[in-house]
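REVIEWER CHECKLIST
Item 1: Sequence provided? yes
Item 2: Single chain? yes
Item 3: Sequence as submitted:
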Amino acid sequence: MDLGIKDRTALIGGASRGLGLAVAQALAAEGCHVAICARSAGQLEEAAERIAQQHGVRALWRATDLGDGQSAHETGLWALEHFGAVDILVNNNGGPPPGQWADFDQEHWRAAVEKTLFSAQAMTRAVLPKMLEQNWGRVINLTSISVKQPLPGLMLSNAVRAAVVGWAKSLADEVAPFGVTVNNVCPGWILTQRVQDILQARSQASGQSAEDILAGVLEGIPARRVGRPEEIGALAAFLASNQAAYITGASLAIDGGLCRAML
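Item 4: Structure as written out by the authors:
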C-alpha cells in the first residue's frame, strides 16, 4: 500500500532509540524526510546517518531536553526553519518513573506533567499553525495502554498520560475542519529499555526476578509475547497516511490484546 506521504516532513521526539526511532524509520521508509530529537547527541547523529543512508531521505537531528517545555517549543521551530513545514509531528518522550503514590512528592508530579503533557503541547504549538495553513497535518502522540487500563506501579504515567489523551481529543475536534488529525498510539508491553526498567522496578519491589515477572505479564497477554518497536512504527506510519484521513481523536491500543476495555 502506498501511504501517500512521500516527501512529507516529520518531526519525531525521543527518536535516538526505542519507539521513537522505530517510528522515524517507518516514516523514512515511506519517503518522509525526518527531523529527530532527544537528549543524546551521539545516538541521534548515528541514527540520522543510518536513516539517510537506508532510505535516501533528509534526516536532521537536534539534541534537546524534551522535559523542558521551552526546549521542546524551540525544537519545533528549528524543524520548521529547516523544512519550511512539519507535516507530521510525533510527540514521544518516554514516560515518568515507575512507582506508587507514596513514592512521589509535588516536585515529581510537576516534572511528570512537564515531561509528558507540556512537552507535547509545546511541540504542537510550534508546528500546528503551518498545518492549519496548508490544510493537512498529522499529530500523533505515543502514550501507553495505561490510558485505557491503568497499570500497577505506574502512578505518574497513569495520571499524566490520561491528561495527554484528554488534550488530544479536544484538539482533534478543533482542527479536524482543517485537514489535521490528532491521534494517540497506546502501546502495551513493547521490547524497549522502558520495559526493562519497569520490570527491574517491579523486581526490586517484590523480590521476584525480572524474568519471572515478565513470564507473569505474558500470561495476561493473549498474543503471549511482547511487541516489537517496528510494530509501533507501522501503526504510526499508517496514522500519518492519506488513507487515515478520517481517523482522528482516536486512542489505538497496540498491546497483543492485553487491555480488556471495550473501547
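Item 5: Key structural point noted by reviewer: The CA atoms of residues 113 and 199 lie 23 Å apart.
Item 6: Recommendation: ____
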